[in-house]
Amino acid sequence: MKAVVLLDFWASPFGQRCRIALAEKGVEYEYREENILGAKSPLLLKSNPVYKKIPVLIHDGKPVCESLIIVQYIDEAWPDRAPLLPADPYARAQARFWADFVDMKFFEYGSRLWKLKGEAQAAAKEEFILILKLLEGELGAKKYFGGDAFGFVDIALAPFVSWFYSYETCAGFSIEEAAPKVAAWGKRCMDRKSVANAVSHPDKIYEMRRERQRRRDTKRAMKSVVLLDFWVSPFGQRCRIALAEKGVEYEYREENISGDKNKSPLLLESNPVYKKIPVLILDGKPVCESLIIVQCIDEAWPDRAPLVPADPYARAQARFWADFVDKKFYEYGSRLWKLKGEAQAATKEEFIVILKLLEGELGAKKYFGGDAFGFVDIALAPFVSWFYSYETSAGFSIEEAAPKVAAWAKRSMERESVANAVSHPDKIYEMVGVLKKKFGVE
What we know:
It comes from Musa troglodytarum. It is an enzyme of class 2 (transferase). By secondary structure, this protein is α/β, with parallel strands linked by helices. It has helices spanning about 15-25, 40-45, 65-75, 90-115, 120-140, 150-155, 165-170, 175-180, 180-190, 195, 200-220, 235-245, 265-270, 290-300, 310-340, 340-360, 375-380, 385-395, 400, 405-415, 415-420, 425-440, and strands at about 5-10, 30-35, 55-60, 60-65, 225-230, 250-255, 280, 285-290. Strands 2-1-3-4 form a 4-stranded mixed sheet, covered by helices on one side. Strands 6-5-7-8 form a 4-stranded mixed sheet, covered by helices on one side.
């Protein structure tokens, strides 16, 4: 038997997927419980340096991350045992679609049922019932989503069966009444040994959820924090990094930034001047513009790790260089992929000058703030994930042009606050490709 280790947390439905898949395949493995609320193990941080989250499957010393990817890997690594994905390419594509639907819709709105109250919870319940009915339609008269065979979509959704009681109790409805076929499917899944041995008891989930809600309510009573943001925004990522550095818990609300008509009423009301993200809402009072928000975060929690220097001159210098990042680095970085030919070449020369100016300011320091990660670092760090797109679009190397800045970038990415906030360079590059086509650059 090959060496298999699973880094997991007992209540994680995502880790439970992996446990179910391994059980269905009859694979023996070593289970290692991780402390996801405290100090994470060196093995977890090494195995999943991007997200630093469970579950992680380590097979022959090689880590695989993200639960649905892990389940597919398990299916492919042990192909001679019970198949989890259909053999037909179209059926496989459909299975992947519905498994992704579980993550993007079912899990998201299920979580809202116990996180929200009042009208917001009522709206989430309506959407959740629609999601259940869509799943009901996909299940149809089949025994499992995979037909007669328990498979990929079943594994994706089965761990959430133990959450049904919490969903119903929090939002006041019955899944069996709303989606009887899904409820019956859930009972069939729980009769399977692989599922019953992996998932948590509904009472334990309910108690855990209640404890989390008590903590959430206590912290909200102390200071309510909401961030209106968009996943790929480097400006919003600044705020996320600052909040993480301060250890501030907050409610994240993803905004649809494609046109004013698609923006939430809360965003339009909170930022009537620019109608843009990010907006930090602190005890009901909105703060706009990322660098202003970061300073506000620093001043609102002065007893935690300082982000802006205490010395007035050093503060002024930090504000100068953070402003330089917005006015020069961001501006010319954007031009690198928006332009072509001579215009792009001229921009590249200017961008390299900008890099060298930052290199001069960084000098021999660990961070722009010295030994401490601070305001200028937070201003620039989200753009590290754009480096690959800049280099690929304009044909140059940031490491060659500004080795100290490149080394600083690597150090910054090793910080949990940064790694958890910024986007993966591949995702940025893919998005830039779409934007190039939109702007007619390609």
